[in-house]
Amino acid sequence: MRVRKHSGKGPQPAVVVDGEVLRQIRQHARSCSKTEVCGVLIGSEDKNSLTIEACISGANAAQAGTHVTFTQDTWAHIYQTKDAKYPDHRIVGWYHSHPGFGVFLSDHDTFIHKNFFSSPLQVAWVYDPHSDEEGCFGWVGQRLERLSEIAVVDHKGGEGAGETGKPEPMGSFDENEEEYLAVKKPERDEEAPRWLRITFSVLSYTTVLMIGFLVAFYLFPRILIWPVDAMGRPLTDRPIDARSLRREPPPPESVPGKDSGVIEAPKSGSDKEKNVPRQK
After folding, report:
1. Distance (Å, rounded) from C-alpha 155 to C-alpha 18?
2. Residue 77 domain-assigned (yes or no)
3. pLDDT tens digits for 63-122?
């Protein structure tokens, strides 16, 4: 990896970090968005190059809003985990979070780095979970400065096509079908005309409304009329359906009588004369 000279103070260390390590640092920092968290970086050194391959979270650290401290219990947990999982690696630096106040090294952070991570290639990784900003600080000569070149690698990538050993998904297309699906576009000429689609929709809605009206007309209660005379006596032996009034002719004209209740009106003038007494 190219190493850049920095103001004549000495070269910056070439730092390579695994992308999985960054994901774990971010996840740890986001789990405590109001207080700082810390941990150590595990990896290897080669001349002026530093490779960060893993990290160990700082359990039982003394956390506060603006600083964090490695306690005796924290170091005991770190060394126990390192000996069990990374016996052939070394501690190449540390990380901590700055929740909401940017990426830099405070006086307290500088004190920790100078007293516990004073090796020329050991670095400090700072991450702000609120702004998602991060940076790496290391020794440039005799000063701690933010490094300008960091390489991130993804060891989960690099898988060749057709070399996974996984079964193929169900269903496939041949070359001609794939070209057809990639090029074929729907043509508006194949669609029905707009006026025809609108007419069909209107007829469909009208048909549904008419069917609903007929069903309601025959299923809902009907109106029955029972005609009576002036004395309140029924004129028919059964009620009349209101719907039949539009089809049946009205009943013959009648007037109330004394005996039968109905007396037909005289049909002609000759009948009237029969009831008139002659004059002598």
Report:
1. 7
2. yes
3. 765 678 888 999 999 999 999 999 999 999 999 999 998 999 999 999 999 999 989 999
144 and 18 in one domain? yes
**Strands annotated E in the chain:** 14-18, 38-46, 49-57, 62-63, 68-69, 90-97, 123-128, 133-140, 143-146, 150-153, 224-225, 240-241
Selection from 174, 147, 216 nearest residue 3 by Cα: 147
Alpha helices of 145-191 — where are they, by DSSP H? 175-183
Q: How far apart are CA 257 and CA 231, in angstroms?
A: 11
Tell whether 67 and 126 lie within a shared domain.
Answer: yes
Cα separation, 253 vs 25, whole angstroms = 104
Nearest CA among 252, 7, 37, 34 for reference residue 145: 7
Closest CA to 149 of 244, 12, 262: 12
pTM of this structure: 0.54
Q: Which residue has the tokens 């004549």?
A: 8
Contact 234, 227 (CB under 8 A): yes
The CA distances from residue 10 to 4, 13, 99, 144, 231, in Å, are 9, 9, 32, 12, 127
